[in-house]
Write a structure and sequence with these properties.
11% strand, 8 strands, alpha+beta, five-stranded mixed β-sheet, 453 residues, 16 helices
């Protein structure tokens, strides 16, 4: 498994541990970790307060699903989200015209998987609005729901010849989940598209199972059954599908305790929480222990937003039954101490592979790169562009998870061709962090591989 960088949380975790208050634990919550959970929530609150960061609905969801709150700052963050979304979606489709043109007007898209559809992002925003506990103005909610249903249909219809949504099954299932949480019925055909994909195991990447996608699908199915939005026959099929998904997750659990990798694990754990099976499943306890052991890997707002709900013993389905009058308005933001600079330099070997047909040869680049001792993978890539020959180039795209590697040596990852740049440490271990967070060791070999999914 890839080594994690030095803990960024140790100082502020220690401070909050000394101030820990005793609160009753939730059924699936990290046992005996009240102070750790508060510290992580405080860290996310501090990151959310940064006006330079684009608002992310998943961050708001994580703040709302925590046990303690700063209600004033959460309201301020909600207002920023509303500014980002409601000028665009607070109108009818007829008044808006062709949504593709409006999508092109957004300068800072936070999705790495779309051309113009925003199925997943709009779904997360709708989930966030449900978590406010404030009744939405009917006309606005109806407009948002109409847009999401439109996206679901366009997402699928535009790619019938491929047999998968234009965006991804992950975003498509988030859309179904968001509609269900708002107790909005979904056409049976839309549900059966996901059911057929689940039954034919279409969610896998070439490097393994897409745990996060299967988990979101399972939560959508669980919601539809629990909220009684489908008939008894379809409900039985959905129950069986969720049982099968949970079984495959257990089978995919590694010796390190993770389901897939550290970042897909929280999604899998949400399924156990949503189906009330976390206590009865030993794999859930192993995964919780693994997350707590490597909590320092969750250092960005987006990754903290992924892990915090499950550490608090909650899934997105808990949004349905939230009781806002019982909330503790006791949280305060805590910023971590900055990392000190490490002395000296290190050498990292950078390899670029392209085993796909368009490439003239498999190995396109293989050279050592000299960087400062504390350099991230992104720093390695930047240094490689300055240390030729041969010339090295790369492109990134901004996402809530940080910079996403979109192109290397002129070869772009393309949604239409279902390709992405896989990040590995030799010989074949997938990195569990993004290029802006992972800090390679001296002498390590990093592989950038253009891969189909």
């Amino acid at each position: 498994m890839a080594q994690h960088p030095r803990s960024r949380c140790s100082v502020w975790l220690l401070l909050v541990l000394l101030q820990a208050a005793v609160l009753p634990a939730r059924l699936c919550e990290a046992p005996g970790q009240v102070a750790v959970l508060r510290a992580l929530s405080s860290r996310l609150l501090a990151l959310a307060a940064d006006p330079e960061r684009d608002p992310d609905p998943s961050v708001y969801l994580a703040l709302r699903l925590a046990r303690e709150h700063d209600l004033r700052r959460e309201q301020q963050y909600l207002e920023r989200l509303q500014d980002a979304f409601q000028h665009r979606y607070g109108r009818s489709l007829q008044a808006a015209g062709d949504p593709r043109h409006h999508a092109a007007d957004t300068e800072h898209s936070t999705s790495t998987d779309v051309e113009w559809l925003e199925t997943g992002r709009l779904a997360l925003y709708l989930l966030g609005l449900r978590a406010t506990c404030s009744p939405l103005e009917h006309k606005l909610l109806r407009s948002l729901v109409t847009w999401l249903k439109y996206y679901l249909e366009e997402d699928w219809a535009g790619s019938r010849r491929h047999g998968h949504p234009i965006t991804s099954y992950y975003q498509y299932s988030l859309g179904v989940l968001a509609l269900c949480v708002h107790h909005k019925r979904v056409r049976e055909e839309v549900i059966r598209r996901l059911l057929a994909a689940e039954q034919h195991v279409k969610f896998g990447y070439s490097a393994g199972s897409a745990i996060d996608t299967e988990a979101v699908v399972a939560m959508a199915f669980t919601c539809l059954e629990q909220e009684r939005l489908v008939g008894s026959t379809l409900a039985a099929e959905l129950r069986a599908a969720v049982h099968g998904a949970r079984k495959r997750m257990v089978e995919a659990q590694g010796e390190d305790g993770f389901f897939g990798n550290i970042y897909s694990t929280p999604w899998a754990m949400q399924v156990f929480i949503a189906t009330n099976s976390c206590e009865a499943q030993a794999p859930y306890g192993r995964a919780m222990a693994a997350l707590l052991q490597h909590v320092d890997a969750f250092s960005t707002a987006a990754t903290l937003a992924q892990v915090l709900p499950v550490l608090h013993g909650r899934s997105y389905l808990d949004i349905i039954s939230m009781r806002c009058e019982e909330e503790l308005d006791t949280l305060t933001p805590i910023s971590p101490e900055p990392l000190s600079e490490l002395p000296g330099n290190k050498t990292v070997r950078l390899v670029v592979e392209c085993p796909l047909p368009p490439c003239p040869e498999r190995w396109l680049y293989d050279h050592p790169v000299l960087v400062p001792a504390g350099a991230t993978l992104l720093d390695v890539l930047r240094a490689a562009t300055e240390q030729g020959p041969p010339d090295f180039t790369f492109d990134t795209r901004d996402t809530p998870q940080g910079p996403y590697l979109s192109g290397v040596l002129g070869l772009e990852a393309q949604q239409q061709k279902r390709t992405y740049w896989q990040l590995l440490t030799a010989p074949s271990t997938s990195l569990q962090m993004g290029i802006g967070d992972y800090r390679p060791c001296d002498g390590e070999t990093l592989i950038l591989r253009l891969t189909e999914w």
